[in-house]
Amino acid sequence: MSRTIVVLTALDLEYQAIRAMLADPRLHRHPQGTRFEIGRLAERRCRVALAHVGKGNHSAAVLAERAIAEFAPAALLFVGVAGALHSHLSLGDVVVATNVYAYHGGTSEDDGLKSRPRSWETSHAADQIARHIARNGSWTQDLPPGRQAPSVHFGPIAAGEVVLNSRISAHAQWIRKHYNDALAIEMEGAGVAQAGHLNKALPVVVIRGMSDRADGTKEVTDREQWQQRAVANAAAFAAALAEGLAVEGQDDDQPVATATMRSLAMRETTRNIAKGNARVGVQAGTVYGGVRITSESDSPTDLAEALTGFRTRLQQARAAGHLDEDTYTAAQAELAVADEALQENTPQSRSTLTLALKKLRGLISDVAELASGLAAVIALAQGLS
pTM value? Predict the structure, then answer.
């Protein structure tokens, strides 16, 4: 099973937009009462844990921390609506935060209020995945039927504790003076960004659909249902990004060793292969690096043969009850992609082959025997010239 992506929302309509994209969501109760719903994104392999955190950075921070501790996710997304701060943004456009400003920090002095901003940057890897998705347009497949694809913008988002609905208020002037590069304004991004920062720089991405212009017309745009349209656009982009982050995160599933141990493991792996009726045993005190004991027949060198063997193991695991039917069907689909890519044997198809095997690894990773067998298949695939 692939690592979970946590998705948090502030409003019920935001929650419902994400929930509608989940296949067979099931309830997960936290001991302290928080309710999550867990499911896979329809037509995708990504596993999502969804929660409603309410408005404000404080509650968002607390429940983001709770979700991180509960699920150890590959990434955390905050998805919802926001007010656009620049005229080049259209209603319905999607803004992906490159960094989040907590703009309420400051000090009050005799000559006025001085800004003391805090800011958190989106991780480089997550930003790169998001930009790739925006460029190739793959995310638009999840838009409502007939919906014209909105523009996707990358830039700072300002997060505070009040709803801004004016261009001329003191609050609006403060934002314009100190945070004039912010594309949008909202109320939760700083909380989740701080939670991610405190958890070994967990990738956190804030994705917002523009539902108003923060200019005094919010009641009009709300009546025209721009919140529903904007959040549907943001949810579609978030679904594609969640899938990309989940696949990327599978490479980081294993516990991280110290630098010294990693170096030794890379330099030194002992492999004993028993031929015929021979048997090999190991007696050792401390072993640095990897030790693998196999029979000669257990180490296929042909990738096509390895895929066939793994398919047999997959069928056996299903028959033994180690895999449920949905996981088995999804795994078979990735194997079919791998088979087709192997037959094409082009640089692009080899990349497709490796990606399919990584997705497959996420599906079966909780079945140790299958995961071990697939590791050898992936090694063969990565060795293709």
Answer: 0.67
